[in-house]
């Protein structure tokens, strides 16, 4: 009597496993993440600090930028971003309230519309997901 239930139990377990695996692979996650940001920490642009959102607005409008170094080539010497030829990345200062100098926060853009945010002076980056 037990033997005739084994195929049904095994079949039911396989169906459950297939549903579980399909749910894990299609449930969002990386679905809305562009290829250039895959494998990185991400942040939606509306979750950035207000000062970073203002810097993005200035970038979108071509300035004017408050700091002379804004828009200069970012060398990626820390190698935290994908390796690209010199001139691919440009950096912009994100104002930090209370700081007398440029502070540690930056937005770095790539030539193919990539946007990265760092709040620790290039030690780590988050890919910014624009809406």
UniProtKB/TrEMBL annotation:
InterPro entries: N1-like, Ribonuclease/ribotoxin
Residues spanning the signal sequence: 1-27
GO molecular function, a single term: RNA binding
Keywords of the record: Hydrolase, Nuclease, Signal
Protein name: Ribonuclease N
